[in-house]
Hints:
Blueprint: H1 7-23, H2 26-33, H3 37-50, H4 68-80, H5 88-100, H6 103-115, E1 120-123, E2 135-137, E3 143-151, E4 158-162, E5 168-172, E6 178-183, E7 192-200, E8 203-204, H7 213-245, E9 249-250, E10 253-254, H8 259-287, H9 293-319, H10 330-342, H11 347-357
Parallel strand pairs: 1-4
Antiparallel strand pairs: 2-3, 3-7, 4-5, 5-8, 6-7, 9-10
Amino acid sequence: xxxxxxxxQRMLQDxxxxxxxxxxxxxxxxxxxDGDAAxxxxxxxxxxxxxxxxxxxxxxxGGLGLGFLDAVLVQEALGSTVSPGAxxxxxxxxxxxxxAGTEAQQAEWLPRIASGEVRMGIAIAERVGARxxxxxxxxxxxxxxxxxxxxxxxxxxxxxxxxxQGHLHIVAAGAPGLARAALGTIDRTRDFAExxxxxxxxxxxxxxxxxxxxxxxxxxxxxxxxxxxTLGAAQAMLDKAVAYAxxxxxxxxxxxxxxxxxxxxxEMAANIEPARALVWHAAHAIDEDMEDADxxxxxxxxxxxxxxxxxxxxxxxxxxxMGFTDLVGLHYWFKRIGANRQLLGSPERVREEAARLxxxx
Length: 361
């Protein structure tokens, strides 16, 4: 049996990569990192026009009804260009609505996400691990509390929030009582925020599934999208290291002819290839609703965190002193990988979760 991408999946990823090559070159990424909101918005709008927001929305709600592997391929392309374009939050919100929303709520929100009328941010980090003083409760007078590391809220029209009981809520980005403060992280290619809620009105997802089911599916999806993002970033850093090694000369020879450099590049490639297979398999497990899907996602997230860290460090070493300069820009990929490592659970945390799921602890 051959486990590989279909022709349609290859075309999808090639289309996204082609768009990002033009719309999100490194100079554009630098603008976003320096605070140019218009540059980030233009990339996100281009992705919407390309149909990225429709991938996980069923056809009856105006979407493409594709699988999660297709979403993973898009996120891998975004990681390879360290693109600031918003995609992950919409994808996770679509899954949350499908899992936790009623049929009427799905019919109300999913078509608006697919069309681009609604762009979602997400605030669910406290479900994985809350800092002291963080957490959102849902009394009758509206959402109250604080959520840290909310993702992709700067361009959002609405935000999906998880309360402390595991219920999902949708709030308007400009709702009375909602305050947003940007959070600075090592990764300036994406926006993170601290959200404060003071009696904020919300639409509660009120489907028949148990509280927590929707947000847990969102976390599972988010972890694998982060793994795919790291995979794309790691592959890009390997490609850049190989290209540099084939043009940089020392002692009248390209450094790529030195065995030590060959070994470094070969070791990066040897780590990336099985990691790619694991990410694809985890996505396939989600699409097929396999019993071990949660375990596979945890393993993919933790493995890519370690592989990405190794590749980021090794690629920088191959570049030597140039690897630390903004001229080459490797630090954008380096920092993206570092942020992905911790988001929605460190490798140590998700490995422990995988062990619990398998009954080992």
